[in-house]
């Protein structure tokens, strides 16, 4: 029988809602993925992204959930080549 990855919990949703910065969000995501061997919960997209939760939280501290495609320069800086609104 294959191992199944657990869905996101109410406690993890609350952890995301309490985020006040990019660092908080990144840490919360890491903490959510850690017990799932680095995977997001299977219901992440509907419960976090499609529900508007991700945008609501990220917008509260001036961030967004857009996807940025780019390259890393020799000095370590990131050059955005394309931004995709999600």
3D architecture notes:
The chain is of the alpha+beta class. It has four helices and two strands, in the order ααααββ. The protein has helices at 10-17, 22-33, 44-50, 53-60; strands spanning 67-72, 78-84. The chain has a two-stranded antiparallel ribbon with strand order 1-2. The chain starts with 9 loop residues before the first helix and ends with a strand. The model has no long low-confidence stretch (mean pLDDT 93).
Shape: globular
CA radius of gyration: 15 Å
How helical, in percent, are the residues? 40-55%
Order of helices and strands: HHHHEE
Which parts are unreliable, with pLDDT below 50 for 5 consecutive residues or more?
none
How many helix segments?
Answer: 4
Termini separation: 35 Å
Strand order of the largest sheet: 1-2
Structural class: alpha+beta
Biggest sheet statistics: 2 strands, antiparallel
Portion of residues in beta strands equals: 15-25%
The count of DSSP E runs of length 2 or more, i.e. the number of strands, is 2
- Mean of the pLDDT scores? 93
